[in-house]
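Revision sheet: structure tokens.
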Amino acid sequence: MYQRNIKHSRVKNLFKFASLKNRASLTLESSLEFDACFHFEYSKSVSAFEVQPIGFYYQYYGKPLPYTPDFLVSSADGKQIYYEIKYSKEARDPEVKERLKHKQQSCIEQGLELRLITERQLRKGPLLNNLKLLHRYSGDSKYSTQIEWVLALIRMFGVVTVRELLDESKLTQGQLNKLVLICASQGLLQFDFNATPFGLDTELFIANA
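Predicted:
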């Protein structure tokens, strides 16, 4: 096994991600790894995720090389999967692809799995920005009376846009957006994160309704 520690450096920016799912603050070495955290944090199939887990040695043309995956993700069904995060251009490099094959083969021999996630996958469409909005308001437990009003109105309509809620309220758009995003971050209501950027035409509905 191989353990690598993240060290502060004058030439490398580190990123902090506050994870409610892990009940911890995670330190990331790149903005791309930071973005990956939003996907893991709000994926229902992920129960926990670890940055820079204990790694391993893999054989690369007869030479043992140390490797630490970027993430170890635990799924809701108990399965654990390693993830490597790469920029799309880097992932297309022949040597990077070849090394990945050897790393994956080593994982298979240990009964494990290593998956690659690229920049294009992480930053495709409006999903990432919508997840970042949720994260901005996660953990905010205030405004309970107003939250109940929002949820009651959505239950009455079934499916309703933010614009329609705004028309029914005496709130400003900013105030209503905040309430809706607090509810969404707590799983009290849902909207299609992949459809469009969050806005007045976003359709809201009650989770599991």
